[in-house]
Amino acid sequence: MSPAQVERPSDGLLATDSESSEDVTSLLPTPPSRPGAGKAGLSVKVQANFFRVNIQGKCIYEYTVSISPEPSPSRGVELFKLLERSRAQEWREFVPFIAHDRHTKLYSVRELPQPLVVEVIEKVGPPPHREHTFTFNIKKNSELNIEDLSKYVFLKGDLEYWNYNTSPVIAAYNLILQKFASSTATRVGGGDEVRSGCYYFKDTEYRSSLPKYLQPQRSLSDRLQAWGGVFVSVRPVRNQLMVNVGLCVSAFHKSRNLGEAISIFRRASHGADPTRFLQKLKVTSQYRGYVTTMRVQEVVDKPPATLRFQWGNENVSVVDYLKQRYNTTLRHATDWPVINVAGKKSPHPVYVPVELCWIADDQLYRGKLEDNEAREMIKFACRKPDDNRVLIDEGLRLLGFSKPNVTGAKQSMPTNVKIDNATLGNFDVTVDPYMVDILARVLPCPKLQYGNRRLDNVKDGGWNTLGCKFVRGAVVESWCVLNVKDGPVQPSTNDLTLESLCKDFEKKCKDCGIVFKGTPMILKTEALPDIQRDAYRRQALAEIHRVIKNWCDANFKRSNGNRAKSSFILVLLRRRDNFIYPGIKRMCDLEFGVHTLHVLIPKLCSTTPSKLDQYYANVALKLNIKLGGVNHLLGEGDVRWLKQKKTMVVGMDVTHPSPGSHVGTPSIAAVVASVDDSFVHFPASLRCQISKQEMIGDLRAMFNERLHAYGGRPGTLPERVMVYRDGVSETQYDAVLRDELQSIKGAFADKYGNSPHPPLTLVVCGKRHHVRLFPAQDQTSNKTGVKDRSGNTLAGTVVDNTITSVFYFDFYLQAHAAIQGHVRGTHYIVLYDENNLGSDEVQQGTYNASYLYARASKSVSLVPPAYYADLACERGRYYLHNFFDGNELDEDRRGSAGSADPKEDDGRLVFNKALKAWGEGVHGNLKDSMFYI
Asked: Helix (H, G, I), strand (E, B), or coil: what is residue 912?
């Protein structure tokens, strides 16, 4: 099972300017094949949202489409609709037998005549319409032999077919199965129609049989609404081609006046830049006498009354121009802004007042949700498995995979709704309407060790820590309590009650085994200015900085110059704030080098003793692990597989800028690794890197840091290494093997020299998938199988057959119990393995490790090293909060005047400014700790 070196062309994902993807070929290791199915655990029957695809055809013809003159992408979509309606003699008979991506790819079950040229006429503008003629040139590319696929030759997992390129066939069938939905719904995806997509159906008549709580839309706020949709993706799995049908939710703009929407946004975000939610937004306007659709390019923060431009020989304001040219009078000429809708090739801007614009229908919201909107979105998306089963069944009908007239549904569909999916019939494809049955296993729970007792009967992914002491309690040398006076004072929370609450917190920590030396100092800020007077909370953070600095300086003097003895600050917040929390984390992690714990005063004022005790206990978990303590361990038998040799377990992840971030904001990479054989402490290395680059650029140096920290003393190195890499997609596996694997090997060469290098195992963790498991349901009796109290499959459920990869050594593991909604497991793929691990070793070992997450008394969905890497990345985002959130920066960030590419120039300046803000990174006092937890 050792990785064989075979010559495989790399995917060229990261080819530089000096080397094209065609030139980038290397000897990439072949990922290990599955070493047989796992056997540990209790066998159970489950179902997954996969449906068998049955193919009868033998051949599909692939064509490349070009359009002359070349249209914009959005215009091209409309032109393809005209192509399908064309009555051209040599074309119209083939229309029912095609599927296309509305861009360059077209597939047909019948061979098209060659050469094939079809002209379409687009009518634009008000009557009398202007006519534009476009010419489609449809050129044959290849013939896809489906016969091998239909006989499951390559689906049997024979290694001789490893390099068999399934992409063209899978792309074809994705388009075929999505064609019906693409003509009836709004598609949301990465623009890659040939792979997968989420479809949002507006016609609620389809869903008239659903109960109200399962209806497909929900208002999130005055400006946004949530839509429920259907995800679809064809997947080749072992011995079968299947389609994964899942559920998805997205936020959409409500169709309303653009000026009103901007006003609502500014009130909710306390004056934030509206560009955050206007990105790529289409708007309509009728001030010219007919409907015009435009795309917002930028918001010009000047009202129409003061914004002037050259109109012929006159320099006029936007207000005067509209009055003279279109006899239009504005009501918000002095208080609402203007947008520029000019295209990239336009020689001058085109200004339109926002009060004359309406947000077009079906527009996806690409910005960050406000807190109240996020809460409403969670309520909408969080459904029980049985409800999701109903919605997926409805999704099959919406996708045209099964007939809509079923028991309980309306027997008369609207006459304007097409219910027959002729495309599937014409391509000789059928989809089994029943979820696939799977024989899964429920792995046994590990035993846990606390300082004063052993827990042998852990079940359902959780355990009670009442009366348990930490395995090793941390020692608190000095600490203080910081009362941040921001917002209204809570009832009955004067200084005396806060002191008593802190004593209760200290008592709980001591009960858990933490040792406190001395009493805390109580610090207070002055009353902070509210957010209306201090939009980005700069004045508030300056006051907090002053108070913390004074305490750190005084503590520094008391400890004879040893600042490391400042253990932690307990920060009391009256409310949540999106600026103060990350601001304190930044100044204490980077500048002062002191741990912080934040608690909400309303939580401390709980009248329920059990809730307050649990809250204190959760905070104590974080405090102990931050300060070097050990909360709990796995039983000796459950961790033996990791202790056979000195093993370093590593987690790696990268986080990227959000849609509302400043252009050029860096991505942040994190590498965490264990330091001993308890597998509890995972200090982190953090780096900024090029924006949206997924491969970790400085991985060699970061891995060297982790190897250096292992064992806590020079010369102590691990005898084997196991890496969990989070966040990479299936298309990036080759890039991981080509780039990151080589960086790790380079770090081994640096540290081990000519000595034997430790054997390495590299496992990719995938959470962003649409695979859901359901307790098995009998098709005749509707009785369900084994499930937990929430209706989900049991914690510890593992699937390594039926829906797994044809070639890869992969499995789906649900290590946790759902708190609410439908549980989602993690997809683990073993990409590289020099340790020759078996299925049970990897599956049971990963499951056991999920019980070692330091800040909870529950198992977690993602193996802790990868989880920690994700948390470290999120902490890095706080250090560059204004960059990631798109807030106003301290200095002008605009590109140079006259730049050939102002956006690129602007991005470069932002990136350099972010590096300056990052500085030297995490303070030396915290680097060897889990400061990010």
From this structure: helix
